[in-house]
Amino acid sequence: MVKLIIDTDPGIDDAMAIFYAAAAPDIELLGLTTIFGNVTTATATRNALRLLEAAGLDVPVAAGAAKPLVLPPFKPSAHVHGEEGFGGIPAAAPRGAPLEEDAADFLCRMARAHKGELVVCPIGPLTNIAQAIRRDPEFLQNVKSIVVMGGSLEEGGNITEHAEANIYHDPHAADVVCQGGSKVVFVGLDVTHRILCRPEDFEAMASKSPKLGGMLQEMSHFYIRFYLEVAGLNGCSLHDPAAVIACTHPELFGMREVPLEVSCEGETTGAVLAAAEGTRAPVKVCMTVEAEAVKALFLKRLALLP
Length: 306
Description:
Elements: E1 2-8, H1 12-23, E2 27-34, H2 41-55, E3 61-63, H3 78-81, H4 103-113, E4 118-122, H5 127-135, H6 139-142, E5 145-149, H7 165-168, H8 171-178, E6 184-187, H9 189-192, E7 196-197, H10 199-208, H11 212-231, E8 236-237, H12 239-248, E9 253-258, E10 260-262, E11 272-274, E12 283-289, H13 291-302
Parallel strand pairs: 1-2, 1-4, 2-3, 4-5, 5-6, 6-12
Antiparallel strand pairs: 7-8, 9-12, 10-11
Helix pairs in contact: 1-2, 1-11, 1-12, 4-5, 5-8, 10-11
């Protein structure tokens, strides 16, 4: 059983990842922390609470940073995920409320409480994770691993020619996380672009899981329309769910150990680059994936939901 906290900016594929975690029998979801990216941090916090309530989960939500470590705030990507983050689904107020504790303090506390067991899976910009590393010198020692959805070594970018969106939205934070050594795993575009969820897959979700699968299918119409317009794909990449799956099924991914740094200026801002040997401890980067196995597992687990 993996003890997991997902750091999230929900977001349609974030919703897919969180519902997967809700269904997975090998995941104990200990909480969500929220971050800007697909939406503002305030909207991400509201959306995280909404997703947990929809899934019938009673776990804490801690609101995170509202802007990057160094750069000014970014405007959310409404053209990708919709104004409210869930495609065409309108805003709704959740019943619950976030903790008074902020995301970084919550992460540090939970890492101490579950020393050597906690897996943190950031699927948005890495600001909260960098803050936790800076606030608690033992944070990296306390966690079991940090499994990041972000970056690419060979695939190029998806928000610029060079940069993947989560890294681009706070490159300075990503560079801090890249210094985390062997406990850090990057699940980036090198593998997530190989896993495509098509309209018929969302139809199957809705058929087998009318409530939550149906919610994802409703969100998917907006998301897939974006993929059609931008990439000519009749489907969406399984970005965030792939990172959560890597937390429990690392054997489905082929990893390379490489020291990394992040470009923080100029036209390559947000690019994840191999650092010179000996300058940093290597992290693990997913370079290959058993794409059909990951997708099948995702769909199998989603079918367990109401």
